[in-house]
Amino acid sequence: SHLISNKSENALTANILASKRNRKLPGGQLNAVERAASVEGHDLNLDESWSTHVSKDPAMHKVLSLDATMSPRDPKAPGQFGRAAEIPKGKETNASLRWKDAYFNAYLSDLIPLDRAIDDTRPEGCSEQMVHNDLPTTSIIMCFVDEVWSTLQRSVLSVLNRSPHHLLKEIILVDDFSTKAYLKDYLDKYMQKFPKVRVLHLKERHGLIRARVAGANIATGDVLTFLDSHVECNVGWLEPLLERVHLNRKKLACPVIDIISDKDMSYITVDSYQRGIFTWPMNFGWKPIPLEVIKKNKIKESDPIRCPVMAGGLFSIDRKYFYELGTYDPGLDVWGSENMELSFKVWMCGGEIEIIPCSKVGHVFRKHQPYSFPKDRIQTIERNSVRVAEVWLDEYKEIFYGYYTHLLSSGVEDLTQQKELRKSLNCKSFKWYLENVFPDIHAPTVRANGVLANVALGQCLFIQNFTIGFEICDVFSQNQQFNYTWLRLIKHENICITPVELKGTLALQPCDNRDNSIRWLHKSLITFQPLLADHFVVEHLSQKMCLEVDRARKTLRVNSCNFTNSYQKWQFGNYYTE
Ligand code: LR7
Ligand code: MN
């Protein structure tokens, strides 16, 4: 039914344009490229004859569901209407040889039409939504390295075919120093057919983060819209994004990202009721909005959804605002964490992030990256995340490092500029962000704290004047307060309990998060219940040594672990497990 209504709407648009401009419209005789080029030539001015689009409010109109790929020339073509495509019999080898080009089915991408139609997967109400007539224009920025040629073409054509011409200032293709010959030989020539498409060839590999900024630097639209290079924009995708930015220039608007199957190129819609979130250490994820919450707040499927973080690849942002925020940290390399950086920055420095369910863009999800990393892949990605953690996470970076202890000693680079930027933008704390934007995340700054009781002794540890002893437990005693941190230190104020020898006494020393020899593993090894009364195992020794009460001298020592010995069992006052 969606298809039919769009078709007639498209026809309506076409008639108005035809009568106004008296020029030839995209038709059956043209090929995919000519059709897109001719759509590009249209000027979609709103006028009074556009009756179904004009609302009671003369400043607004119904969202334009333009789609120049309707009435597809070959309805039977493989992949048409977003259907799954099949590898023809006998071509399996050809297809599998191409798998590593992209880690998605490049063979089928070549087989399906460059301008195939896809189902209008927008939720109910979206095609009736009103948007302002004076929406800002946008520059589309698409960076790529060695993208499959047909996939890149399809991405560009989907923008041209399904975006109102007057809002599309330009499409900037940033070639991140691709190595493939086809991108050198005929990319420029092909794209010249579209006056709005500009190609920027980088002279060295920048990685997607600096490549996007290079594109932004030459953009002239009011709004920047970033897209990956393996996407298909759905009907009416653009205006709902621009509308949100228009309402508030500090809003960053993301489409719902539909799935284009890596295996068969089918276009699959996803559930709209999902937020973009992160889990520790700093991984992006989707979190469904619980049904009770939807019901209680009467959330419609077409309502914008505020998100703690965005996926990263597909979003619109006011161009000037992007620069006010200092764009991305230019020290971020190749891939990763830039979505966290911009998300934290936007929220903490006065902006907002939303997913707009009425804007749908398909993206080819894949399991591996086909391109090489100039330096070691893992190191590059981890280094990026350290930069973001150091600048934005405040005291919560301990949680991050709790998962990535090995990165503590990685030697933090100079982040003065990024920290200065945060200061000059007057940004709020990460604590504020967690409490106000992402209250449902579990983020205790320590894993356990309070008194530390020995199970056999039934007494609590205290530290006074750099000496250790035991006394009756008193939760109000300052001397009995200990923290068990994410970095697995047993900490009283800034003093850490430190094993000194294999068998023997303990020392107290000022805590140093980077010192691996003072970490204690405290988890139940038998019940698999994390963090209950249990042993503290010295972590850096291969032989299992445990924290123990020396009964005779009523003090502490380390001894070989004996998991039935309750003089080696300890319990904190509070545990912060989920
Ligand atoms: O060195 C590079 N230079 C590039 O130009 C590496 C990549 N790129 C291009 C690449 O061709 C592609 O167009 O950058 C784009 C993104 O790279 P992908 O497609 O390999 O990344 P992805 O889709 O796996 O990863 C997601 O996270 C990235 C984190 O750095 C980026 O933000 C991607 O844009 C982002 N993609 C999405 O948000 C789509 C939804 C994925 C999810 C969840
Ligand atoms: Mn991608």
TrEMBL record:
Pathway where this protein functions: Protein modification; protein glycosylation
Listed GO MF terms: carbohydrate binding; polypeptide N-acetylgalactosaminyltransferase activity
Enzyme class: transferase
Protein name, UniProt field: Polypeptide N-acetylgalactosaminyltransferase
Keywords: Disulfide bond, Glycosyltransferase, Golgi apparatus, Lectin, Manganese, Membrane, Signal-anchor, Transferase, Transmembrane, Transmembrane helix
Documented EC number(s): 2.4.1.-
Cofactor(s) essential for the protein: Mn(2+)
Keyword Coiled coil: no
Gene Ontology CC, one term: Golgi membrane
Membrane topology: Single-pass type II membrane protein
Broad class of the protein's primary localization: Golgi
Organism: Geotrypetes seraphini
Organism superkingdom: Eukaryota
Cellular localization per UniProt: Golgi apparatus membrane
Keyword presence, Acetylation: no
One record GO biological process: protein O-linked glycosylation
Gene it is expressed from: LOC117350544
Family as reported in the entry's similarity comment: Belongs to the glycosyltransferase 2 family. GalNAc-T subfamily.
Domain Ricin B lectin: 449-573
